Amino acid sequence: MRNLQFLIVAAAAIVAGCTAAGSRERQEFSRVDERRAASLADAFRAARNNPEPAPVATATGVVKLDSLVREAELHSPRLLAAFNKWKAAVSGITASYALPDASFSYTYFIDSIETRLGPIEHRFMLEQMVPNPGKLVAREAAAAGNAQAMRANFEATRLGLRESLVVAYAELQSLEERIKITREMAAAVRDIESVVEARVTSALVPQSALLRVQVEAERLESDARALEKRRPALIAALEAVAGVDLPDRGTAEPFASSTRRPLPDKARLVAYVLGHPSVELEFARQAIASAKVDEAGWMWVPDLMFGVEYEVMVSSPSMPAAMSTKQAIAVKVGISVPWQFHVNIARGDAARAEEQAAKFMVQQQKLDMTARLAMQEFAYEDAERLVELYEDTVLPKARQTLELIRTDYTSDRATLTDVLDSERALLAAELSLINARADLAKARARIESLVARDLETIK
């Protein structure tokens, strides 16, 4: 009986120790971002209770980017999936150190075994396998690492969601500007058409000149209609990212007025990038691999097995009354025998190789993120340079050139070809400015995603 008590106390101590460690891991995990996690959980719960998303467009169909980002954090299926993976991983910590299920067996003896107390007729057996504590601790560490990985995955998904929304929204903004500029240029060419038509009537220019202007105007009007037909595709792309419905003919707000915003110090940006959730994800995977190495080392240590056996015996009429006992209780204790040395050696080699691979992946992810930052810094600075060039130099001169050539055309000092070429040059400059503004917005969004914060908050 003392041996049985000792085994029960030892098993309870092992389970209690693992439970305390798991509790500490969950508390440490919840401290990472407890308030935001709770608010997001409440938001997700509210979204499930109210499946209809809040409107993200005004009565005139203008889609608001800030409202779209907020709604996306509530309704994006990708972000909801990442959140629930995080939640499942935290819950999985408890299951990681659970003992194997106990086994209960019953035996009925058809041919009874004779004992001095009588033949055995029934046997009840309860057995429990208890892995050695090292395995349980290692498995718990791996589960905690998985929870950390899912947290990092959630953070990376959230940042990527915002980046994707801003990029898609910039495409919609660019489309709106292109449609507006193309229509304005078509209207300007129609104005020239009326002048040329008057000259054709007066026999000052040939009929071919009028046809050239009409073809140019119709081409621009066709381009505007083609751009308009692209709007539903861009709206669908926004809906796919955000997980909310938008009006089919929704429009975006115009690009904000350009302001010169130099990027923060490069060293500071690199420091933020090295703390990106994707880097934390690789660190978590390294922790999981290290836990597997620890578990492989403990595979050489036997597991403990204990059990209780209860036997029922049939009384014999010839037995004296003093020996009429019909039951017996036995305690079983055993250990596993890790005799497959080649399997344990292979398991350890595989775990150490995975750990080394995880360490190299951490280094590679840092290099990749730093390279991405350098690329986006160039994209940002180049787009800002182009915006400044077109706004301050190219467009003013292109507009002035067109105005002068139109004046010269009315006084026969310029040809119709000069006018149309100037119109095309101005249109190309306007479209180039739109592209530069869109590229600037996209590069800024990607840099903010890489550093995991708004650039305005970096001093």
Question: What are the SSEs and their pairings?
Answer:
Layout: H1 2-31, H2 34-49, E1 62-63, H3 65-75, H4 77-96, E2 103-113, E3 120-130, H5 133-201, H6 207-242, E4 251-252, H7 266-273, H8 277-298, E5 304-313, E6 327-335, H9 341-410, H10 416-451
Parallel strand pairs: 1-4
Antiparallel strand pairs: 2-3, 3-5, 5-6
Structure in words:
The protein has helices at 2-31, 34-49, 65-75, 77-96, 133-201, 207-242, 266-273, 277-298, 341-410, 416-451, and strands at residues 62-63, 103-113, 120-130, 251-252, 304-313, 327-335. The protein has 459 residues and is α+β, with helices and mostly antiparallel strands. It has one domain (2-98, 131-301, 338-457): Outer membrane efflux proteins (OEP), CATH 1.20.1600. The strands form two sheets. The protein has a four-stranded antiparallel β-sheet, covered by helices on one side. Strand 2 (103-113) and strand 3 (120-130) form a beta hairpin. Helix 4 (77-96) runs antiparallel to helix 5, helix 5 packs antiparallel against helix 10 (416-451) and helix 9 (341-410) runs antiparallel to helix 10. Mean pLDDT is 83; it is low at 1-10 and 12-17.
